[in-house]
Amino acid sequence: MTENKPKLDQIKVTLLNDIMDVLVPKIDDIPGAGSLGLGKDILELTNKYERYRNALFTFMDAMSLDPRYRANGGFSGLKISQQEESLRSLEEYVPKTFETVLEMVYLSYYSNPQVQTRIGLEKPNPQPDGWVFPPFNTKILDKIKSRKPFWKNIESI
Amino acid sequence: MWALSKAGFSVVCLEQGGRIQPKDYPVNRPDWEQSAFNEWNYNPNIRKHRNDYPINTRDTPIKPLMFNAVGGSTIHWTGHIPRFHPSDFKVKSLDGVADDWPIDYSDLEQYYDKNDEMMGVSGINGDPANPDRSPRQMPPIPLGPDGERVAKAFDSLGWHWWPSDSNVNSTEYKGRKACNMCGPNGYGCPRNAKASTDVTYVPYAIGNGAELRIKARVFKIHTSSKKKVTGASYYDKDNVEHFQPANAIIMAMNGIGTPRMLLHSRSDSYPNGLANSSGLVGKNLMFHVYAFSTGFFEHIEPTYKGVNANILMSQEFYETDNERGFYRGYTYQMTRSLGPVHTAKSVSWGNQHHEEFDKKFGKTLNLGVIGDDLPEEHNSVVLDEKLKDSHGIPAPKINYTVSKNSRKLLDHSLKNAETVFREAGAYKVENLPLIENGGWHLMGTARMGNNPETSVVNRECQSHDLDNLFIVDGSVFVTGAAVNPTPTIQAIALRASDHIINKRQDLKS
After folding, report:
1. A131, B305: Cβ pair inside 8 Å?
2. Which of B183, B349, B351 sits opposite A126 (nearest CB)?
3. CA B178 to chain centre
4. What are the chain B neighbours of A138 within 8 Å (beta carbons)?
5. Backbone angles phi, psi at B59, to 5 degrees
6. Which of A36, B32, B268, B371 is at 20 to 30 A from B63, Cα to Cα?
7. Cβ B426 vs Cβ B295: under 8 Å
8. Alpha-carbon distance B241 to A137, whole Å?
């Protein structure tokens, strides 16, 4: 955690939401990651982790320099194929930064209960319940146990 | 620490990390994946705890992983404890490559057994790929329907497999609960079902009277003019400097931390660093080369249920076979899938994201390949000239390349992994040729041997140069085998302890 955290202005927040909708688009009745209102979750992550904050600001600065974005009335003015192309250029240009931003988007998106229901995630917390498994069935060893030992004996060396 | 304190030694353990309480492990929380990528990341360069030190990894395709806390990397491990094969100690004699160890399997066997008793092993005897061993303390961890599916595929191919020996409890053991199969067992176990050393050896050592000082960062080992070490300087949690005198020092700082400290402790008497008359401190770094094969299945119980790793293994391709075109071999270890964010990170973003995610999440199984990584002198740990930790101590820099032998080995393994998954019913197989964040095992940088010119410590883990300096971590490995190193490190440490106990009068003089 650090103090004096920089903030995104409203224009960049809107841009971020548009980008998130491209990265994780609408499925069934669930809107894309940006329209789902996860922008605030992303900002919380940047407040908590410096590496996320650095990645997001680098990412947003680089995005705003993209000539396609500047010439067409903003990212939202581009066709979806152009939006993807713009993001793929960025991914190539700053791969680690892009990967880190994507990680943030996924962390926010897959924490959403509506999304977790869609993917069939039964329990978000591994503990304390765990899962019930039947005990080990030794019958499964019948075939392999019939094989003679084949490890290399080195006593003669 | 445990063995020596039990024998009546006065033991002070200087631990760089702090003590973590099981309630603080991330798997207790729904945001556990967030922690896994950040404060619980295996990679210290991402985690950046105050107790960590940075590592310059610019010149290595494999990033080293470690954890600094009471229990060390056993907090993070999955508890997989295969033993070295007898052949692993005689690689030079058998295959004409690398070197033989000055000890062999029979020297370590009783210590493997003793360690098993302390840690608690779930498993079963009778594995035809390994020498028979003492009775396991608990039955094997359940394979589950997915594990049985993979086991049957190996059977159909006539290839070896066996349930993994595991330091995860299948039943209650020594007051620690049985595993409840929650899944991601690499991020600490709140039930203490996984045998990390903070809940196995350390409490007994403290009960014996050993003193554990946490958040104590050692920065120099001191010597006298009589080929002896005299003590260590360290910073405490408040950054206050201390000197701890000692009749003997035992280093267990891992295969990167140990050479770093030996090199950093150089003096006028030891200008190339301590214990380094051979010039081999920091050389011959071995990681194990890891690859990963993923099989996709249509009708399968969600594969994020059950222990993530440590289910079954195959050693069909463990030994050298000249027809394969590479020396030594590899072990397969089956793993399951993890949470949704881990899955999402491995598929496309954009309009293909949901389709690819839905095919993968909870519907894939993996065969991790752990390949023997033969020692090469140019693979090394050196002190970085610029990068430093928070106390100004030079960081280690890693120089490492994947050898042609390793690449051939991994390619062979991935081809066969695909065969296994097809036999198990997978409709698709994806391969990851090399795991970048796969430097779990840090070995070889202060190797043992009989000849002081070609090794750093002798067969008892005692420095050739300094009589009362011992090293008991993966640094002393001569070769790395194709198995996880922890039980072998522990067995070597127990064996070294016996030597120290037997020679205690020498240490006092």
Report:
1. yes
2. B183
3. 23
4. 124
5. -110, 40
6. B32
7. yes
8. 56
> Rounded to an integer, what distance in angstroms lies between the CA atom of residue B311 and that of residue B328?
23
B42 assigned to some structural domain: no
Encoded tokens for B408 = 């051939």
Contact A98, A90 (CB under 8 A): yes
Nearest Cβ partner for B27 among A121, A126, A133: A126
CA A39 – CA A16 distance, rounded (Å): 7
The answer to whether position B53 is within a domain reads no
User: Taking a C-beta distance cutoff of 8 angstroms, is the pair B181, A130 a contact?
Assistant: yes
Number of H-type helices and E-type strands within chain B? 13, 16
- Residues of chain A with pLDDT below 70 are 1-6, 69-72, 156-157
Cis peptide before B396 (omega within 30 of 0): no
Alpha carbons within 13 angstroms on the beta-carbon side of residue A39 total: 18
Query: What pLDDT digit, counting tens, does each position of B459-492 carry?
Result: 999 999 999 999 999 999 999 999 999 999 999 9
Distance CA B343, CA B363 (A): 10
Q: Which structure tokens are listed for A96?
A: 């680690």
Q: Where are the alpha helices (DSSP H) in B77-121?
A: 91-95, 105-119
- The gap between the terminal CA atoms of chain B, to the nearest Å, is 21
Instruction: Please give the residue range of the domain that contains residue B417.
Output: 2-18+63-508
| Angle formed at CA A25 by CA A22 and CA A26, multiple of 5 degrees | 145
Q: Which two tokens stand for residue B398?
A: 């890693």
Distance CA B290, CA A91 (A): 26
Write down the residue that tokens 């010119």 correspond to. B453
Beta-carbon separation of B90 and A121 below 8 A: no
For chains A and B, count residue pairs whose Cβ atoms are closer than 8 Å: 158
Q: Is B313 helix (H, G, I), strand (E, B) or coil?
A: strand
Instruction: Please list the helix, strand and coil fractions of chain A in percent, rounded to the nearest 5, in that order.
Output: 60, 0, 40
Residue that has been written with the tokens 């000239």 in this structure: B385
CA A53 to chain centre: 15
pTM of structure: 0.96
CA nearest A30 in B: which residue? B354
Token pair recorded at residue B159: 């290839």
The two structure tokens encoding residue B190: 């709140």
The pLDDT value recorded for residue A2 is 45
Before A128, cis peptide (omega within 30)? yes
> Is the CB of B341 inside 8 Å of chain A's CB atoms?
yes
Delimit the domains of chain A by residue range: 10-128
Q: Looking at the DSSP assignment, which residues form a beta bridge with residue B286?
A: B443
B156, B164, B431 from B313: Cα distances, Å: 15, 6, 18
Tokens of B123: 């498993």
Low-confidence residues of chain B, pLDDT below 70?
Answer: 509
We report the CATH number of the domain holding residue B117 as 3.50.50.60
Our count of domains for chain B comes to 1
The DSSP secondary-structure symbol of B351 reads G
What residue has token string 């760089």? B16
Asked if residue B37 is part of any domain, the answer here is: no
Number of other CB atoms surrounding residue B352 within 10 Å = 11
Residues 6 or more apart whose CB falls under 8 angstroms from that of B433 comprise: B291, B410, B411, B414
* Residue B232 placed within a domain: yes
User: What is the sign, positive or negative, of the torsion defined by CA atoms of A73, A76, A78, A84?
Assistant: positive
Q: Virtual CA dihedral for B192, B193, B194, B195, nearest 10 degrees?
A: 70
Q: What is the pLDDT of residue B12?
A: 98
What is the Cα–Cα distance from B361 to B185, expressed in whole angstroms? Answer: 18
